[in-house]
Structures are given as C-alpha cells and as structure tokens.
Amino acid sequence: MALIEETARSLARSDPRPADLATERAIVALINRSARLADDRDYLGWMDLFADDGEYSAITFENLSYKGLRLFRDVGRSGLHERVAFLMGLLQVPRGKTVHLVSNIEVSADGPDAASAVSNYIVARTGELEHTKLHAAGRYLDRFVRLDGEWRFKERLVVVDSNLLPAEFTELL
Questions:
Q1: Which of 45, 100, 115, 128 has the fewest Cβ atoms surrounding its Cβ within 10 A?
Q2: Reduced to 3 states, what is the DSSP secondary structure of residue 11?
Q3: What is the residue range of 151's domain?
Q4: Does residue 147 form part of some domain?
C-alpha cells in the first residue's frame, strides 16, 4: 500500500519536484517503451524494464479511493516471470492486438536515483474479425530507480477507471 498512499500524497501536492530534462526524457522513453513492448507482445523485453525487486499491479479507481484490493500484484522477478509465462501462452487465453496510448506524463524527481511519474493511458484492442474497441483506460502511477545508469520501474500501479473490467482481461495494461 506504500505506493498507493505515497501517490495519493504526491497527487495532492500542488508543487511537484520537477525532474531535470535528461531524467524526464529517460523516464518518458521508458514509459513509451513499456507500451510498445506490450503492444508488440515482447513480454520478456517488457519484464526487463523492471528492477529485480520491481512490482507491477493493478487496481480499480474505486478501490484506490478506498485503499481496497488490487486486481493483481506481481512482486519481484519471480512474480513478473509468472505474468510473462501467462502472457506468452503457457496459460493460453486468446488475445487480440492492442495499442497503448500514453499521455499527460508528469515526471517528478524523488532523489538523485529515484523518480516518480503519473500518466494517463488508453488501451484499444482489436479481436479476431472485430473492429477496434476501447479495452481499458486509466492512469499509471509509477516509481523508478536508476541502476547502473539505467532507469527501471520500481513500482507500476495501473489504475483502471472502470469498475467493470473488460472481457478477456489478460493483456498488459
């Protein structure tokens, strides 16, 4: 719950600590790379964007507001490996092509080797023999750590705006 509480405090701040330009560009590139790798189904590449003790989780907006239960929570390399194994088809569920659109990225400096960001996302999905439809929308609440000069996700909390989850809710958000 640390990320949820810290992010709530961060969003309430009217004066976020701006990151330097190089840090902001690197963080924005990392967020965009994560979206592209998810769309390309390069799940191993996506997993490598996380620190070894990184965390990936999702929660609905309503549950975030009440500090409720997460939809899922993958912690550390082993948790991320399970997510990737599922997505690569070891626990196969048919999925369609996705397009992640990320916008309104705000990056804050949390120290020389730490940063956070808040951004909005929309995921569109095209199923087999279907038109493209809105699959999910919401906000990314991210914390980053710089390891050996490279920025990595320390924590990514995906806030899903809808309380009614889409069918075949299996894609990376």
A1: 128
A2: helix
A3: 2-160
A4: yes
Query: Sheet holding 150-160: strands in order across?
Result: 72-75, 50-60, 150-160, 132-147, 114-126, 97-111
∠ CA 61-67-73, nearest 5°, is 80
Q: Assess if residue 113 is contained within a domain.
A: yes
Q: What does the pLDDT look like over 16-35, one tens digit per residue?
A: 688 889 999 999 999 999 99
Interstrand relation of 132-147 and 150-160 (parallel, antiparallel or unpaired):
antiparallel
User: Residue 22 is part of a domain; what is its CATH number?
Assistant: 3.10.450.50
Q: What is the pLDDT of residues 44-57, one digit of tens each?
A: 999 999 999 999 99
Residue 170 lies in a domain: no
172 within domain boundaries: no
Dihedral (CA of 51, 57, 61, 67) sign: negative
- Our count of domains for the chain comes to 1
